[in-house]
Write a structure and sequence with these properties.
Metallo-beta-lactamase, Chain A, 6-stranded mixed sheet, 6 helices, about 25% helix, globular
């Protein structure tokens, strides 16, 4: 992953290992993308590194991407961002969390703030472009950091495949369109791609190895 002396981008696999979460930090300030796992484990990481959590961003509302988000948002008194089109999924997957031994998201969870396509500054000097990518879920989003050439696809696209569309609110047609839109964005081949699950890639690698990454 591209490195900068002041800025750190780290893909973390907190137990139980399943989802690729991203921790971005500048000095002591940090943000989390797709906070999977237990909030208590995240707190240990943050406190152990002396980091101050500023916000949480979610690519979509499935439980394996938001399981720790509500509790962390409450514990650190920070904002959690998610497309409101995916709010209906919060708590929908508690049975999945049972399988991994993750605490349920209860009805009184801290509500997320609606996240819309556009450009935001997630930490001082770190700009992120938010791209709509419905199909896996209605409110699916991808996050691109243009100054660092790093892309988070969530579950829209994987190294050699694409996300499921048979969950509630999924759409094969919309997912194909989202993938086409990403391809047509013409990101540079060296752009580092963090997928929701599985190995990291680059745009150039996807063009050669993912038959579904086409216009």
């Amino acid at each position: 992953m591209p490195k900068n002396n002041d800025v750190k981008f780290e893909v973390l696999h907190l137990p139980p290992m399943n989802t690729n979460s991203l921790l971005v930090s500048v000095g002591r300030d940090a943000v989390i993308f797709d906070a999977w796992g237990k909030a208590a484990d995240w707190e240990k990481v943050l406190l152990g590194r002396g980091l101050k959590l500023q916000a949480i961003y979610s690519t979509h509302g499935h439980p394996d991407h938001i399981s720790a988000a509500p509790a962390l948002a409450c514990a650190f008194n920070i904002d959690w961002f998610l497309s409101d089109k995916d709010n209906y999924l919060i708590g929908w997957g508690n049975e999945l969390l049972d399988m991994f031994g993750i605490p349920h998201i209860h009805d009184d969870y801290k509500k997320p703030i609606n996240l819309l396509p556009g450009t935001v500054e997630v930490l001082p000097g770190i700009k992120m472009e938010i791209m709509a990518s419905p199909g896996h879920t209605p409110g699916g989003l991808m996050f691109y950091f243009p100054d660092y050439k790093i892309l988070l696809t969530g579950d829209t696209l994987f190294a050699e495949s694409f996300g499921r569309y048979d969950f509630p609110g999924g759409s094969a047609e919309q997912l194909q369109k989202s993938i086409r839109n990403l391809y047509n964005k013409n990101l540079s081949d060296e752009t580092y791609v963090v997928h929701g699950h599985g190995m990291d890639t680059t745009i150039g690698w996807l063009k050669q190895h993912n038959q579904f990454f086409i216009a």
